[in-house]
Automatic annotation (TrEMBL):
Enzyme Commission numbers on file: 1.14.14.1
Keywords associated with the record: Endoplasmic reticulum, Heme, Iron, Membrane, Metal-binding, Microsome, Monooxygenase, Oxidoreductase, Signal
Broad enzyme group: oxidoreductase
Source organism, top-level taxon: Eukaryota
Organism of origin: Marmota marmota marmota
Location in the cell: Endoplasmic reticulum membrane; Microsome membrane
Protein's UniProt name: unspecific monooxygenase
Amino acid sequence: MDPVVALVLCLSCLLLLSLWRQRSGRGKLPPGPMPLPILGNILQIDTKNISKSLTNLSKVYGPVFTVYLGLRPTVVLHGYEAVKEALIDHGEVFSGRGSFPVADRVTKGLGIILTTGSRWKVMRRFSVMTLRNFGMGKKSIEDRVQEEARCLMEELRKTESSPCDPTFLLGCAPCNVICSIIFNNRFNYKDQHFLKFMRKVNENVQILSSPWIQVCNNFPVLINIFSGSHKKLFKNVNDLKQYFLEKIKEHQESLDMNNPRDFIDCFLIKMEEEKGNPQTEFTTEALINTVNDLFGAGTETTSTTLRYGLLLLLKHPEVTAKVQEEIDHVIGRHRSPCMQDKSSMPYTEAVLHEIQRYIDLLPTNLPHAVTCGIKFRNYFIPKGTTIITSLTSVLHDSKEFPNPEKFDPGHFLDKSGKFKKSDYFMPFSTGILCASFLDHNVINLLFPFSLNHVLVFRLTSGTKTEISATLVIDTW
């Protein structure tokens, strides 16, 4: 057969298959724009502003609608009511994870972030419990954050009030906190091994957020056909896994079952306790992937929040002045902030919440999937269907947050100036899949600590993603 004819026949079959699959599910799924064969609705979504595209589609099709990312249907939930109904009221059914062919290639279904079902529950329960009760009475997470904050301030003082870009230092601090929790060791900011490690972690986060990876996730066949940033991702992950394995071996050689020093020790002890269980989830490979997930999820989210937070305070000096006044009144200048101070600092607490609401760090969250078929708002969503929740539509809801595009700590304060909680506050999602314990602890301590030591902020130049500011640090 002529190669050209064969190619045409293959393409025709693919088009027919695509049309058949898309039409066969249309009567069951929520409404949505008509997809193109193979491509689906990709051309109707602006990859540079996905949230805006989804908002525009919700105005036409309602708070629950379907888009096709390639051949796969994806149900989008837009607005607080729809997101709450799915992730909280039907949390168990919507607790699955969407398909990530690129990430699945390196995690093999292990770890925390991309696992699902009983495996996810076991790993999450162990990780959260270990972080909360870390060290069996030894050095607490709060102590480690305070120690790292002091190191961060020392590095900032070295700038001697000259213009600087603190992006790198703000990334080192949360990464070092996680290092101390997992490895029982922090690193000097100029340590070459630490710098190489940080570079790979940050590079992986950037690659995973790139449009090319989204294309590969929707068309997995491309992963093996083309070279691209995913190859660099695979290499970085393999290098990181090797580094983690070396650390694990060091821990195994010096492990004291009655005296765990860090997260790895606690996991190794659990492995030893369950070594007779053939169904155990606690294996060396699972530990490597869990450690990789903790670094990937905890470093970038925290450092980005700190960076954007400083930018917002540079832009709103009146807010900075009020926060500084509250810090001086409650904490003073002679001790470090601690978690107990939160209840006495409603304005600072409101500012921290407003920063996370305003920057909208995870606009569409990580995709979920339904674990079984479910009738949802008179539609039927088949088992395994990918679910996208628009956190932007919740965090920027004008009914809950008047003038949502404006940075205003008053969104989280009542008329008497007390901190006001909001069910709409979902910076890292909500429901049973939300596991942001470490992020909140680090952000809540690092941020006021930074402000407690920085007397003057003066913006010299910069954009939302590039910081160039003069930090005038006290010398007492």
